[in-house]
């Protein structure tokens, strides 16, 4: 069963095509990662999926309803944005208490949500005293108050430090396993979502160019293009592990020969993120796809 179906969706702003004939399905109970560089169309696709933007053509079904015309479909979705808008002077518990009244939920759900996201010792602190990661956890708690069937998170880790990024993704995995929620996450860093997602869709220039399981996505890829803050440290680490690479335009290009090498590379980069290195993005390049895009 599919909770979200997107078929041949196109969205334009004037003469600029943001989404170009996009088709995608998100199955019930899975974690779908929507991955692509900034400007690929991820946020527009999410807003269109929620019925917050009118598409120019194509079909969107969210729980078998068109969310643009039937807003009730959105009531089953908890939404988390890149920069959550939270009342900075208000304590978490008080804020969530107001939210329960909006959704007509019992107050007991507040403690459940706070415990689940790992904020049980912070419920009486105002948002102004929380770290960026804790605020994002609070935003996830907010999304859980409505008791949704699905969570959609638009770049939920982009403003966090490497350690918090990993913790937030692990939290989504925990929520998926404990509550059985369908989860859709957008990101521009592929390695960090490989370990938590069950399926991945790669976007570029308004198109979905590849979909599949994490293993499907990384097989037959020969070159990885890495954008990072400290090129020297990443380069030295990769060379120590036997990778052939080059640096062009501030990017690191890594050659791999087989799927085992690709998996090892992505795990190494994931470890670098955990250790505090800032990796802004990685594109795994399949020559056939690149030739099609360039053509």
Automatic annotation (TrEMBL):
Cross-referenced PROSITE patterns: ABC_TRANSPORTER_2
Q: Entry's InterPro entries?
A: AAA+_ATPase, ABC_transporter-like_ATP-bd, ABC_transporter_ATP-binding, P-loop_NTPase
Return the SUPFAM superfamilies for the record: P-loop containing nucleoside triphosphate hydrolases
Keywords tagged on the record: ATP-binding, Nucleotide-binding, Transport
Xref: Gene3D superfamilies: P-loop containing nucleotide triphosphate hydrolases (3.40.50.300)
**Pfam families listed in its UniProt record:** ABC_tran
Under Gene Ontology molecular function, one entry of this record is: ATP binding
- Can you give the residue ranges of the ABC transporter domain? 4-230
Give the family, as the similarity comment puts it: Belongs to the ABC transporter superfamily.
According to UniProt, the name of this protein is: ABC-type multidrug transport system, ATPase component
